[in-house]
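pls ignore typos typing on phone
zinc ion + seq
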Amino acid sequence: MDETFQVVVMGCSGGPREGNLSGYLLSTIQQPEWIAFDGGTLLSGIDKAISKKSLEGVTAAEMLRDHIKAFLISHAHLDHIAALVINSQIDTPKPILGIDPTIDNLRDHIFNGRIWPNYGNEGVEPQLNKYQYVRLPLHEPISIPHTSMSVETFLLSHPRGYPSTAFLFEREGDYLLCFGDTSSDSLEIEKHLARIWKRIAPLIQEGKLKGMLLECSYSHKEAEQAIFGHLDTKLMMLELHHLADLGQISLEGFKVVVTHRKESLKAGEDSKQAIAEELTEFNDLGIDFIFPEQGDRILF
Ligand SMILES: [Zn+2]
Ligand SMILES: [Zn+2]
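k done
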C-alpha cells in the first residue's frame, strides 16, 4: 500500500482531562517534515508517542523544537491551543497558520503580555518574534512554510459567530482532510460542510483523498449536547451520508479518524467507548472508522 501521510496523535479527547487534548502531528512519509494540526496537547503526547515507538530517535524537546515546522490551528478554544502556549517557552521560531479570528484571538487574548508573554509578531509590544502569524485565505491552496505541503482552508460552524476551520492538506496530488470542531449543517443556516463535501467528493472518487480526521464529541444518548457546535454519532453519520449522496460516491473502506470524543467521567459510564460502539452500529456505508488513542501513529 502506497501510503502518503502519517499522523501521530498528541491528544485526541474532547476533554475534560487536560493531558489528552486535540493535537496531531502530521507529515508526509516520504520526507518527514512535521506540522502540528492544533496544539491542545504536544509534549505529553510526544512522550507517549516515543514510549509507544510511534516516534523514534528523537527526544520530546528535539521533536518540538527542531522537527515541527509550523502550527495550523483550527480555532483558538483552549483545548486546541493549551500546549502551544505552555510549551512555547522552549520552542524555536516558527509560523502559526490560521484564519483571521483564530490569529486575532491568539494575539489579543493569549500572547498579549498578560495571560502569557507575547511570543507573536503582532499585538502588544512584539519583541520576542518567536511566532510569525500567517493569516490563511479561504478556499485557496497556500504552501506551508518549510514543507512541501500546501493547505486549503474552509470555514466551519462552531458556536455561531465563532468560526472553526477544516484544513485540506495536499502533497503532490495526495490529500488529507483535518476538521476542527464543527456543528452539523442540519443545525446551521450556513452549509459549510456541504461546500467541503462538494470539494472532496471528486478527490475520493479519484482515490486522491487518503482519509479524514472528523470530530464526534458525543454519543447519541447525549445528543442534546450537540447544539453547542459539535457532532454526535447520528449527526456524523448524517453528514457522511450527505457526502456520499452529494458526490454519488462509495465510502467503502474510506478512513475516518474519529476525533474529539468527550469523556463524561460519570461513574460506570464510558462515553468514548459508547461513541465507538454507536458509530460501528450505525455504519451502513462501510467506512473504516479509526478510534485513535494518544501516542498512536496512523498511516494514510
Ligand atoms: Zn471548540
Ligand atoms: Zn474542542
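The pocket of zinc ion (ligand 1) is lined by residues 75, 77, 158, 181 (CB under 6 Å). The mean pLDDT is 96. more later
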